[in-house]
Write a structure and sequence with these properties.
A hairpin with a 5-residue loop joins strand 1 and strand 2. This protein has a 3-stranded antiparallel beta sheet with strand order 1-2-3. It contains 3 helices and 3 strands; from the N terminus they run H-E-E-E-H-H. The chain has 2 domains: about 70 residues, no CATH class; about 45 residues. It is mainly α and about 130 residues long.
């Protein structure tokens, strides 16, 4: 690899550096640490209540300008994710299958060549022993 290629890779990695987001909480809320309030641009926090109830809201110290119940929002997010994932393109699936099969064939070929190499080493060792 040339020095220019190394510098190009370093430049690409610097440009791909994403801003670190806050640590997600430990509860079941799907979008913890991912959403911001459209009004004040603060990250939405998750407030958990007894049982399985929680809600999203912005602002820790004062009255939030955005607050909503979780099950409606999380349900909408899940519905949209599954809608996108429900029907992958057939060509993409065919390409993935072909790639998987070629890797499997390459692995089997490697195993066969290792068997042949070991058999050859075994024959040489027996000849030396005799």
């Amino acid at each position: 690899m040339t020095v220019a290629e190394q510098e190009e890779i370093k430049r690409i990695l610097r440009e791909n550096h994403f801003k670190r987001r806050g640590r997600p909480g430990r509860g079941p809320a799907l979008m913890q640490g991912l959403c911001r309030c459209r009004i004040c641009e603060k990250y939405l926090s998750v407030n958990y209540h007894r049982g399985n109830s929680y809600r999203y809201g912005c602002g820790w110290e004062s009255e939030p300008c955005t607050r909503f119940i979780s099950h409606e929002f999380d349900g909408y997010v899940l519905k949209e994710v599954f809608k996108r994932l429900s029907a992958p393109p057939v060509e993409m699936l065919k390409a993935a299958l072909a790639d998987s099969r070629s890797k499997q064939i390459a692995h089997k070929n490697w195993i066969q060549s290792e068997r042949e190499r070991l058999a050859h080493e075994e024959r040489r060792a027996r000849e030396r022993a005799d």
